[in-house]
Sequence to fold (339 residues):
Amino acid sequence: MELKANYESKGLGVIVEAKKDSKRGIIATLICTRGKIKIGDSFVVGTTFGKVKALVDDRGQRLKELLPSMPAEILGINDEVPVPGDVLKVVESEKKAREIAQNRKQIRKDNILHQKNISLLSLKSQIEQNLIKRLNIILKTDVYGSLQAIRDSLEKFVNSEVAIHILHTGIGDVNESDISLAKASNGIIFGFNIKASDEIMEKGKESGVEIRIYKVIYDLFEDIKAALNGMLEPEIVEVELGKAQIKQIFDISAGKVAGSVVLEGKLLRNSMVKILRNGNIVGEGKISGLKKFKEDVKEIEKGHECGILIDGFENFEPGDIIVSYAKEEKIRRINELEG
Fold:
């Protein structure tokens, strides 16, 4: 049986690569898979449409038509850059192409909203328990290759408390739809090697949407990591201030006083303390008073003797070590898996 290509059916092609050129507009490389794609044909591709203005082969020669298995660059795609794998289909009129594209855009919008709800549902219990936070982003790039590389890298930003939720990705400049989605979902728009017009930047500002455009991919990653770092709860760490050894115990009207000598650092009034006996913690409390001779003081430094009143623990003994400490917040950073 001899197989023959169908040259009479409406043209069909598959997008291999696409980008937006500042001078020539949207340029896509496609391979014709069925029928003919001719100059002047109206078509729909992905969620956009257009009319074939030019067909250029790999030698830069302009063509009048494409036949099955022939590759070429195509010019004439409207406003939205298609992605590799999108099917270009010739239709009877530009009106029909626009109608199909608009229907597809609505379906995509519904899918995005559905995807958002699914994500919220899957994370619901963790979010309600404040176990995980989400950074909602919209990602726009110049070409599909950049988009995929950035997505793959973002998947390596791992932490059990924060997550990146990519609401939408696309090829081409930031538009009003991106701003509307970002506003509705409290998201940030990140763009790589694309533009955002003054009008779009102003609309973003009015809507309270942050738009960040990058030329260096490293800077984009660093800013996203910084945003994630800011969402992490700080780690509470204990910082040792000083140590003292109890030499003698006195009973006064206010309670027991530990007559001590400061061995390291300094002791501060109102600081937290742990009482160690033979290396084990036997009590905890807070320094409610410090006395140097009969004078009340705020702090005592290394080498000095003092009287220590501890709120919350009085069962100390001579020889016990009093460790004074403060609790501080330590900034935590997102982990990035290697490889």
Remarks:
- Residues 115-132 have pLDDT under 50 and may be disordered.
- The chain has three domains: 12-99, 132-231, 236-330.
